[in-house]
Amino acid sequence: MSGIAIIEFVFSIADFLAAIAILGGGFVAGLLGADFVLWVAIIILVKGLYSLLTSISGGYFFDWMGYCDVAAGLVIFLAGAGVSYEFFALVGMVMLVKAFYTWARIFLGF
User: How far apart, in whole angstroms, are the C-alpha atoms of residue 76 and residue 83?
Assistant: First the structure.
C-alpha cells in the first residue's frame, strides 16, 4: 500500500467513526466517551474544511467529499448540543457510504 493509500485509509476510518457517531447517537457517546466523539467531530470538520479550501483554491467547486465531511462535523456538534433533526441520519448514511467507497477504491483499485 502506498503512502497516500495509508493516509486515505486512516481518513476513511475517521469517516466510518463519524458515521457510527451520527447513526448511533448517545449510545456511541456513552460507549466510547463524549470526548472521543468530540475529537472525531473536530477531525472530520477540519478535514472537510481543508478539503474544501484546497479544492476551491484550485477552481474545483464540487468537492462532494469535503461537503460531506463539513456536514458530518456540524451534525455531530449539533447532536452533542442536544439538537436533533431527521436528516441527521441521512448525513450518517452518506458518511458510511463514503467510508465504504474509499475502502473499495483503496483495496479494489478503482
Answer: 10
Q: How far apart are the first and last CA of the chain?
A: 14
User: What ranges in the chain are assigned the alpha helix state H?
Assistant: 3-24, 26-32, 34-57, 64-80, 87-108
Q: What is the pTM of this model?
A: 0.90
**Alpha-carbon dihedral of residues 53, 54, 59, 60, nearest 10 degrees?**
-90
- Beta-carbon contacts of 38 under 8 Å, excluding residues fewer than 6 positions away, are 76, 80
Cell numbers that stand for 78 in this block? 449539533
* pLDDT tens digit sequence for 10-69: 999 999 999 999 998 777 777 777 888 899 999 999 999 999 999 999 999 999 999 999
